[in-house]
């Protein structure tokens, strides 16, 4: 799943309002070039979702990002998104502040 412009895959719970907001991350799309979203509830047979499951990841532990041949889950995924977005909208500014460092993310991710 590699190419010259890596695709960031955002696997989320389509029934989670915060995840749905995150899935519309146009700021990440502007920065990276390509962000594809997968609602794990409706697209559970997708190969990326199946690979995440095979890696032991579940939505109960938080959203999952697959990027550059690596899976990130929970606060690590939130941090990757925060650092991959331009801080131009209120959501990306808030996301960056909540997840810019590991110590802040450890506190803010469980609350989210």
List keywords for this structure.
112 residues; alpha+beta; globular
User: How much of the sequence is in beta strands?
Assistant: 15-25%
The major pleated sheet works out as: 4 strands, mixed
Strand arrangement, major sheet: 2-1-3-4
Instruction: Give the mean pLDDT.
Output: 74
Continuous helix count: 6
| Cα-atom radius of gyration | 13 Å
State the secondary-structure class: alpha+beta
Number of strands: 4
Please explain how this structure is put together.
This protein is α+β, with helices and mostly antiparallel strands and 112 residues long. Helix content is 46%, strand content 16%. Strands 2-1-3-4 form a four-stranded mixed sheet, with helices on both faces. α4 crosses α5 and α4 packs across α6. The chain is globular. The N and C termini lie far apart (30 Å).
Q: What topology emerges from the helices and strands here?
A:
Layout: E1 8-12, H1 17-23, H2 26-32, E2 35-39, H3 47-54, E3 64-67, E4 70-73, H4 75-84, H5 90-99, H6 102-111
Parallel strand pairs: 1-2
Antiparallel strand pairs: 1-3, 3-4
Helix pairs in contact: 4-5, 4-6
